[in-house]
Amino acid sequence: MFNFSYKYCDHIDYLHELAKAAGVKVIDNTIVLPASMGSGYIKVVELANGLQVLINECVITQEVRFCRQPVADESYTLRFDEVKNLKKLTIQIDEDKLNEEEQVYSGAFLTNSLIDFSYTANAGIEDRCINIFFTAEWLKNYAGISASDEAFAAYLSLKTATFNFEVLNFEYRALMEEIFEIKDDHPMQKVMLQNRVMLLIERFFRSLYSRMGQPKKSNVVINDDSIKRMMQVESILVRNLSEQPPTIPVLARTAMMSETKLKNLFKTIYGMGLYEYYQKNRMLKARQLLRSKKYSVKEAGMALGFKNLSNFTIAYKKEFNTLPSEI
Questions:
Q1: Phi, psi (degrees; rounded to nearest 5) at 147
Q2: Is 311 within the bounds of a domain?
Q3: Can you tell me the distance from the alpha carbon of 122 to that of 88, in angstroms, rounded to the nearest whole number?
Q4: How many domains does the chain divide into?
Q5: Which whole-number Å values give the CA distances from 107 to 47, 50, 114, 117, 236, in the listed order?
Q6: What tens digit of pLDDT does each residue of 201-210 get?
Q7: Which helix (H) or strand (E) covers residue 86, if one does?
Q8: Same domain, residue pair 147 and 292
Q9: pTM confidence score
Q10: Range of the structural domain that residue 172 is part of
Q11: CATH of the domain at 56
C-alpha cells in the first residue's frame, strides 16, 4: 500500500513531496509514476493571479491512501475526479466519511485547508483528475466570495454529505477533456488552461449558489439518496459508449424507481434527458478519438458503434457544428 501523508500546501509543494515519497524526480513540474506504482503522470501548471492546476492521468496498481493534514492559512482545492475500476473508495473530510463501491466514481467538490482530508482506494484504479488550488484572498478578490458568505459557509459545513458532491455533467466533462488535450508545447497552453479552469470554477460556484440558495419550486425531490442513484445511472450510461445504452425500464429498475421519476430526476440533476446525455458524451468521445490522430473518421465512428458513416457524420455535425473530417 502506498501511504502518503502531507500538510496542506500549494500544488507545487505537493508535487515535490509526492515525488519524494514515490522515489521519482520532478521535471518541468511533472512526475511520471514509477513502474512499482503504476503508469501515467501528474503535472502542475501555474496560471495567472496565483491559480494552480494539477492534472493527473494515472493507472495505480497499488492500494493507495492520501492523507492531508490541516494548516492555519486558509486556502482551497476544487477537485474534479473521475475514477474507474473501483471496488472501494473512502473519502474522509474531518470526521465524516463517504464510502463509494460503484465501479465508476465521478464528481466535483471543494475542500479547504482548515480540516483534515483523506481518501483511500483499491489497487487497479484508473484515475483522471483536475485539481484547482486557490487562496482565500484569490477567492475574495477574483470571485467576490468570502468565508463568511452564507451559502459558501453552508456548503463547506456539509463535508462528505452526497449533496456536497457536484455531479460531473456534460458541461464539466467537455471542459475537462479540453484541458486533458492541451499539449505542454502549445504556444497558447497557459491562456487556454486559464480559460477552461476559470469556466470550471464559474460553473461550480454557479451550481453551488443555485443549490445552497433558496430552493426552486419543483415537484422533483432531490436528496442525498436520489443524487447517489442518479450518479449510478450516469456511470452506467457512459460506461461503454460503443454500445447502445440500457433501456429506460432497465435503468429504472437499477435506480429502484419508476420510469417517470427516473427521467424527471435525471433531467433535473444533469440538465438533459437520459439519451441526449448519452449521445452528447458519445460525441465528446468521438472528438477525443479524432483529436488523438490515431483514428480515421471511419474508425472513430466504428469504435462508437456507428455502422453507417453518414449517420456518424450527421450526429457529429449536429453536436459540434463542424464535420469530423475537419479536425
A1: -65, -20
A2: yes
A3: 6
A4: 2
A5: 23, 24, 22, 16, 15
A6: 999 998 888 7
A7: none
A8: no
A9: 0.82
A10: 2-212
A11: 2.60.120.10
